[in-house]
Amino acid sequence: MTQEISTTLDVGTTAEMTNFSTLGLHPSVLAAITAVGYEEPSPIQTKSIPLIMAGHDMIGQAQTGTGKTAAFALPILSRIDASRREAQVLVLAPTRELALQVATAFESFAAQMPSVNVVAIYGGAPMGPQLKAIRNGAQVIVATPGRLVDHLSRNGGLLSTVKFLVLDEADEMLKLGFMDDLEVIFNAMPDERQTVLFSATLPASIRGIAEKHLRNPQHVKIASKTQTVARIEQAHLMVHADQKINAVLRLLEVEDFDAMIGFVRTKQATLDIAAALEAKGYKVAALNGDIAQNQRERVIDSLKDGRLNIVIATDVAARGLDVPRITHVFNIDMPYDPESYVHRIGRTGRAGRDGRALLLVTPRERRMLQVIERVTGQKVAEISLPDAKVILQARIRRLTQDLAPRVKDKENKNPELLAHLTTELNCSVEDLALALLAKTTEGQAFTLAGVEREQPVLAPRSRDDRAERGSRPARDGGRDSGSRERREPLALSEGKVRCRTALGTRDGIAARNLLGAILNEGGLTRDAIGRIQIRESFSLVELPEEGLERLLGKLKDTRVGGKALKLRRYRED
Ligand code: ADP
Ligand code: MG
């Protein structure tokens, strides 16, 4: 029988704070967590880690993005016998991508355990090296069920030393039709083992598996109760993890805020984002668990009195922070649960003021957004990334607001100086005004072309992003995957020239759209088109140099995704 331990979290209380160091984890694992920058366990981690450490079978149910990987990886790594060079842990994941993500996470949590090795087993790659890694004594195997069954059909004894079995994203595995493969794998496993199952949902089929293959499992569920949210205007923006800093920079240009608190998950992210904002001239500070209490108080005081306008914090570090000036809460990283979302956004809209809450959502976090909307009973409106035009308008508006009181101000004027300068420089008042404008706006573009040029093609990467990106399949051949954004420009193919369009991912463009349009309207064959690079605010396509003018003429009026393609020859200099 399963024992139900349903957990609901109180909002607004700073109830007992769990610390990773109180969960009985191995010191090497604790050291790795510190290095990764996690400050406190997420709710599913707090509940699961002690159970797994105590040797229980368990079922963990929590939404995507709540930290389930660490919930099983940390205790299991703490309990393996690193001195034995044999397979001890098997994690099953539904897809190659997820298997690689989990394998990467295990590797980072085992960074201080040099004798622990991790192997990922998935289809579409040669079996030989995978088998060799297992034979060489990798202790952790992360596998997709299909490929593992292939291995088992050749070598039935492969799993005979495994002591820990994890079914990760179990609902996804069943949706993908792995039920039969799972049975084969269960039969190839020793009976004497600990089995844990993690899933976002628990349909009957999964309960069935649990009843048959888990022993007296403990049931941990992170449930969400309905939340009441103050009248706070909420908006979200879909972005890829590696575009977060860029998105933050652009949104800050157009959001009218007094003071803002931005929430991220790791210490490193507080530092990275604060540094990126500081470089743009914002008065910003990072707040994380490493910052000493007196320094923390200084930061909060500065935010209160306006010496700082932005604080980038982890949830832990922001605890108890109550500054009435805060008009904006920016959820740069997704919170672990709706309760913490509500708690975070409650920092704004204080004292009857209007508040605004922004949320960045990466593609895999979509479901968490839906849960937040359901639990709070409110829609979180979708917004898009402001384009250069909107940014320019916002800059001009700010400059106007800045100058308006000075123009009206009768006191602080110096007509003598004006006369002196126009005489000395032998220029008109208008010339002088233009020169002074250029001076005050230095470092910021005030023309459309200038703002467009400013848009970073390669936004600085935060460490957190790296973790997510690194866990994507390294050999991903996907044409429109975000990882393409990072590649250095390669040498041009023979006889090809690079052409540019101002359409990019923010216009919803993928490589196949561009390819389709150019093939159809340009009357080319596929091999006439070289590499396609889709960036955020533009794209590059390699086209044949011969007949280029004619081709561009044909494509003159071509539209992609409803927008004018306007392809031009692109010269890098
Ligand atoms: P799930 O499997 O529940 O979908 P993941 O295990 O993939 O979630 O974790 C989602 C993200 O949260 C990852 O980027 C992970 O590094 C991060 N994360 C997990 N636990 C913590 C923590 N305690 N502190 C900070 N970040 C965390
Ligand atoms: Mg997961």
Question: How would you describe this structure to a colleague?
Answer:
The protein has 573 residues and is an alpha/beta fold. It folds into four domains: 3-221, P-loop containing nucleotide triphosphate hydrolases (Rossmann fold, 3-Layer(aba) Sandwich), CATH 3.40.50.300; 232-385, 3-Layer(aba) Sandwich (Rossmann fold), CATH 3.40.50; 392-454, no CATH class; 463-569, Alpha-Beta Plaits (2-Layer Sandwich). Helices cover 40% and strands 16% of the residues. It has an eight-stranded parallel sheet with strand order 1-8-2-7-6-3-5-4, sandwiched between helices. Helix 2 packs parallel to helix 3 (68-79). The protein is globular. Bound molecules: adenosine-5'-diphosphate (ADP) and magnesium ion. Adenosine-5'-diphosphate (ADP) is lined by residues 38, 41-42, 45, 62, 64-70, 265-266, 467-468.
- Are there runs of 5+ residues with pLDDT below 50, and where? 1-16, 457-489
Top-tier CATH class of the largest domain: Alpha Beta
End-to-end CA span: 69 Å
Please report the total strand number as a whole number.
21
Using the coordinates shown, work out and report the CATH topology of the largest domain. Rossmann fold
Number of spatially distinct domains? 4
List of distinct ligands in this structure? adenosine-5'-diphosphate, magnesium ion
The helix tally amounts to 22
Helix amount: 25-40%
**Structure classification:** alpha/beta
Q: How confident overall, as mean pLDDT? A: 85
- Taken from the alpha-carbon principal axes, the silhouette is globular
